[in-house]
């Protein structure tokens, strides 16, 4: 098992090493400065012809990074959307898969370790991972960071002198080559960079021409060992493929969101949960993928919330219709059943509509609609409050973004609880609520203040319940 810190450092290393070097430390002490034994920018003219490639501000790109000086390779896929100020990167290295999601609007970066679902939140403005896509503030808006343009992110055509080196062939493709010399003071590194783009007229997958094919970076990084600054050589080759731009890149909101079921502790709460209504009815389909079962429940519920003295006040009614799960213990058989819970009296009426009989029994305080009254020694039950009914209580949900359920765009909220199943402790469960976005209306023409609950995804210790 890999640890969170391991994969975080892998991602940090990868992103920082991208295009330059394989360390993540900042340069310490006095800088060596430009190392002219590597190259010298003043000797490199900026070629006016041929025309340099123009880069799309929306793209997806797969990169194979070959870090020759350290004998390893790593792959990643970059998702870049300048217009909407969002970016993501997936990385595969030594059997690990991690990814970073850049949320410029919230100034947050989420690093998710894919195999374990562990997520870490960092502030983008102080993250070293902004190296890849940038974090530029402006004088007019110093608190809000923006991404680099594609030219900045790819470090090509961004104002540095680039000399045309002629036509050559890479992986069978006709390419044009440009050379530049860069010095990065943050790492005290000087490097000669060669960029290769497909030649004009060479047809590419998404119909664009002049797409990135390869970048080589060779240079020296100055490190202080003991008290002696020493040059360390590095040689990296980046092979680019599957470069798709604009609509072809198929970037969706999901590309830039943490995946379903992943909790990012400490993430900013950017959108509050809806407030539940006090009376409602709904039908819910219950899918249990582990046992391959589909069930349903129809619920009609009326909460009367006029007192803290729950059990001797009018507290509302709940009715629900259901067919018991064939794998559960059901004393009233496995046909359709109706239950009416009268919380005024604490009595559950169980009705079998086919037979026409009814059994009255105490309401189970661990049911989905009930709670034991505190201090009553589990003798008395009360109806759940609407917030308790939807498990909104005693926890802070985080807004995850917009995801699609049955073709409907939903606002998604997630949290983790340790008090479920009821009357147990020590189980961790993940609760993910999907509410249809306000722009969706029901066929009645009504938009509910509460929103339309579309799905609850509940995972607990390997058990899933939709
Ligand atoms: C990389 O492999 C080469 C050839 O096997 C070896 O000479 C070199 O020391 C290795 N470098 C590192 C950093 O392991
Ligand atoms: C690209 O150029 C812009 C404008 O000069 C600059 O702010 C930015 O830092 C440059 N990006 C890189 C990666 O050098
Ligand atoms: C209805 O009657 C049947 C047969 O006596 C019994 O098995 C069942 O539990 C009863 N159901 C209810 C809801 O009372
Ligand atoms: C709930 O938990 C309490 C204390 O652990 C126990 O006494 C009671 O029997 C439990 N009730 C049910 C319905 O499991």
UniProtKB/TrEMBL annotation:
Pfam families: LolA_2nd_metazoa. This is LolA-like domain-containing protein. The keyword Signal applies. Residues 48-242, 259-447 form the LolA-like domain. The lineage of its organism: Eukaryota, Metazoa, Spiralia, Lophotrochozoa, Mollusca. It comes from Mytilus coruscus (Sea mussel). Keywords: Signal. Residues 1-25 form the signal peptide.
């Amino acid at each position: 098992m890999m640890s969170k810190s391991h994969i975080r450092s892998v991602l940090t290393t990868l992103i920082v090493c991208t295009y330059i070097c394989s360390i993540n430390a900042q340069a310490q002490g006095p800088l060596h400065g430009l190392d002219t034994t590597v190259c010298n920018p003043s000797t490199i003219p900026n070629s006016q012809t041929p025309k340099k490639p123009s880069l799309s501000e929306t793209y997806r790109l797969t990169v194979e990074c070959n870090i020759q000086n350290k004998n390893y390779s790593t792959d990643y896929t970059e998702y870049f959307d300048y217009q909407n100020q969002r970016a993501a990167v997936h990385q595969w290295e030594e059997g690990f898969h991690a990814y970073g999601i850049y949320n410029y609007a919230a100034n947050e970066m989420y690093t998710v370790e894919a195999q374990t679902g562990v997520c870490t939140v960092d502030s983008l403005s102080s993250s070293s991972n902004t190296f890849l896509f940038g974090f530029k503030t402006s004088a007019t808006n110093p608190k809000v960071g923006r991404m680099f343009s594609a030219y900045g992110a790819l470090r090509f055509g961004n104002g540095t002198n680039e000399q045309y080196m002629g036509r050559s062939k890479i992986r069978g493709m006709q390419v044009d080559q440009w050379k530049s010399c860069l010095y990065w003071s943050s790492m005290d590194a000087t490097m000669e960079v060669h960029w290769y783009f497909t030649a004009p007229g060479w047809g590419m997958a998404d119909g664009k021409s002049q797409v990135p094919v390869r970048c080589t970076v060779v240079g020296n990084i100055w490190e202080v060992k003991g008290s002696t600054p020493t040059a360390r050589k590095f040689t990296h080759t980046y092979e680019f493929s599957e470069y798709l731009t604009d609509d072809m890149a198929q970037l969706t909101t999901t590309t830039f969101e943490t995946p379903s079921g992943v909790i990012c502790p400490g993430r900013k709460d950017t959108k509050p949960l809806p407030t539940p209504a006090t009376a409602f009815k709904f039908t819910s389909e219950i899918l249990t993928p582990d046992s391959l079962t589909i069930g349903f429940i129809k619920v009609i519920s009326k909460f009367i919330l006029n007192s803290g003295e729950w059990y001797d006040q009018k507290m509302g009614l709940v009715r629900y219709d259901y067919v018991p799960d064939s794998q559960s213990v059901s004393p009233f058989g496995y046909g359709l059943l109706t239950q009416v819970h009268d919380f005024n009296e604490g009595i559950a009426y169980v009705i079998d509509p086919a037979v026409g009989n009814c059994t009255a029994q105490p309401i189970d305080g661990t049911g989905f609609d009930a709670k034991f009254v505190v201090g009553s020694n589990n003798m008395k039950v009360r109806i759940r409050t609407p917030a308790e009914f939807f498990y909104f209580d005693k926890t802070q949900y985080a807004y995850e973004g917009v995801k699609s359920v049955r073709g409907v765009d939903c606002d998604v909220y997630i949290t983790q609880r340790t008090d479920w199943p009821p009357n147990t402790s020590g189980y961790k469960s993940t609760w993910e609520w999907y509410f249809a976005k306000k722009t969706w209306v029901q066929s009645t023409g009504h938009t509910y203040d509460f929103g339309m609950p579309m799905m609850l995804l509940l995972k607990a210790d390997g058990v899933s319940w939709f």
